[in-house]
Amino acid sequence: MTMSEEVIGKLAKAVDEAARTSESLVMLTAENPEMTLDDAYTIQRASMERRKARGEEVIGMKMGLTSTAKMEQMGVHNPIYGHLTDAMVIGDGETIEFDAYCHPRVEPELAFIIKEDISGAVDARQALSAVEGVCAALEVIDSRYQDFKFTLIDVVADNASSTGFVLGPVVKPAADLDLGNLGMVMSINGEVVETGSSAAILEHPARSLAALITMLSERGEGLKAGQVVLAGAATKAVHLKPGDQVQLEVDSLGTVALGVS
Ligand code: OOG
Ligand code: MG
User: Fold this and answer.
1) pTM for the complete prediction?
2) Residue nearest to atom 9 of ligand 1 (CA)
3) For residue 5, what are the contacts with CB-CB under 8 A and spacing of at least 6?
4) What CATH number corresponds to the domain at position 183?
């Protein structure tokens, strides 16, 4: 870590305020070129402490930039993680307000529900042993940076653009699914906007889960029973606009939906 606790606290406040007020920020690295990836994860955690102080609870984690399509879209080529809180939960079929965000986008995802605590440097098989079930999910991302542009370090400090997520109603054990190759079709207002496969998520979503647990273990952390984990988008993210009705259909897992007003 290169930054003092004071600077970490100041930058955590900046990303937290930007998220709270949906006013975009200049990239943190522009004024803090010495910031490292490790500092960025520390800022991310410090911003979660601010949310917790307001009564939010961390209920899971997300992986991001786990597919080639997303890496190319954002120009950032390393998988990252972020924290999910209870305030980010959007009910299936619920309508969100466009004005509550800076420049929201939606992504087709899968979510894991964790059944037992797990930590350490694990492989995909070990990671799956801690999974209760898998469901379809939509993630709404909203970078707090101007024009949705960032470096790896900036996006990590900004909690991997996390802002909202919807879980589908069908939860199935991983063993009952062809988890490594589930077809995923995302439509907006009845038109298909993205199609993909869960194979796009680090070649298999369980590898994304294992990568998350392994990265968390570097900080002496892990996943806890009951937590939800988003594995990362299978395709590019798509801009949302008022009036959109988004639907994701995943093989064997049914549909999950979201509206925008
Ligand atoms: C970073 C978060 C990416 C995913 O699923 O790849 C992400 C971003 O693109 O803003 O959530
Ligand atoms: Mg995502």
Assistant:
1) 0.98
2) 74
3) none
4) 3.90.850.10
